[in-house]
Amino acid sequence: MQVITAVQALKQYIRVLKERRSTIGLVPTMGALHEGHLSLVRQAKKENDAVVVSIFVNPLQFGKNEDFSRYPRTFDNDCNILSQEGVNIVFNPGASEMYPDGFCTAVIPESLEDKLCGKSRPGHFRGVAVVVLKLFNLIQPDVAYFGQKDFQQTVVIRRIVSDLNAGVTIKVLPTIRDQNGLALSSRNAYLSETERNDALCLYQALIRAQSLVKTGIVNTEEMVREMEKIISQSKSATIDYISVVNPETLESVQKAQSGDVVALAVRIGKTRLIDNVILTIYEQPILSDT
Amino acid sequence: MQVITAVQALKQYIRVLKERRSTIGLVPTMGALHEGHLSLVRQAKKENDAVVVSIFVNPLQFGKNEDFSRYPRTFDNDCNILSQEGVNIVFNPGASEMYPDGFCTAVIPESLEDKLCGKSRPGHFRGVAVVVLKLFNLIQPDVAYFGQKDFQQTVVIRRIVSDLNAGVTIKVLPTIRDQNGLALSSRNAYLSETERNDALCLYQALIRAQSLVKTGIVNTEEMVREMEKIISQSKSATIDYISVVNPETLESVQKAQSGDVVALAVRIGKTRLIDNVILTIYEQPILSDT
């Protein structure tokens, strides 16, 4: 496994892969790897000749008062894991390698960036958009892999890839959860034991939403009220948002349909967590009048 | 020569070229071709296995009160010329092919877009940035060719290519002028005979700036005053801006150096024209004291 920190060196490795006509799978990460990331790496490994994992805590996607400086960094451990998974290249650039002096280009998913998480994280998604586009241009992957947990991120990335004709296939894999249902996240490391227990309310609320629609309750106001009840039972929880949205436009819907996404962000103590489910609504059997 | 209007068809042609490992030269245009464009096409032809010329009057780079609807369109004639030049592909998409419903991604060269032409053409350079990035992603050229006449455009494009690691070599070729010095531009078609004569003041002013610095007058305030004098002699001329700038940052300089660019925009009647020169300042011989 090659660990590369310089853009120029990365370009050379990619050129060699392209000359050999190797297909490339990319898993962009901020490190602090968990089983969620590894599910992406394993899928990438299955489907491509070569796998590149980027580890870059991207300053542009953190707000001024967010957790950039204390975001978990476990680089050596990450590399050990990735090496065991048979990853070919780890790209771990410094910030000045990605954003040299004079850098001034913004990539803005205009109708998507002020919705859901964008409201409380202004600038976050343009930070995501620009770094992902840079990684795509540098690594030229055939397929890039993302986790469903970061739902809005996946919508933004699909949008910019389509809008800019970036020519990368985006695959989104299911959220990986612990045995209690908590979505794996590098930020779970911030949680105390009590908070980790409180954090289960996110998934419990989502499960409740899913079961409501299966019983025919598709009015999203009612769904959200029920979810709020569940979350309010956790002492350390403060709701940022709960929303049922169209999975492409991220517009709120009034009546939930199959394929809509229930997304939420909740602060557990000082830790902001997100989670979501894609709704499946079984057709009700039509009862005969006779 | 293939004339292609659909993105999907273009992708297939490009895939074939890439499989053959053909190098690709791209000349992005808005049509209404003149010798300036053809100098780019000929250079592209010399240096690449295949040449793609895009003809797309990009609505995103026109302001609401600008000349999008009346911009000259001479498609059949353009194709005849390009066919004679041995161009391989003309890409002529419709606006909905480039910007389908839901399109919402902006690419913004933040510190460059509000300078020079950007002041009187808000939004112009983000329109240029997004269409050029799309063309680069679709066509994957080894080299893309632009004319020096659109100086700020070349600076913006170099910047976004560098910032986003787009991996395309940008070549900027000299401005082509008529026998009187008028820079060739599709918009010259708007000029009456009198206006065409008045329009010579742009280049005359630039020539004056160049000769001033060669005599040691590098104070840009003085240079601009002298240029204003020349332009004010043309009845139909209204100055938009005259500026001496650093060729990368586009910041105005107080004392001109070799490599700085004198750029101007002048309205001749209702037609806004631009032109520029790159300053060359010969070193003064150092006189001996003895």
TrEMBL record, chains A, B:
One of its GO terms (biological process) is pantothenate biosynthetic process. Pfam families: Pantoate_ligase. Keywords: ATP-binding, Cytoplasm, Ligase, Nucleotide-binding, Pantothenate biosynthesis. Its EC number is 6.3.2.1. (R)-pantoate binds at Q61, Q153. The keyword Cytoplasm applies. It comes from the Bacteria. It is an enzyme of class 6 (ligase). It is found in: Cytoplasm. ATP binds at residues 30-37, 147-150, 176, 184-187. The reaction proceeds by a bi uni uni bi ping pong mechanism. This is Pantothenate synthetase. It comes from Candidatus Brocadia sapporoensis.
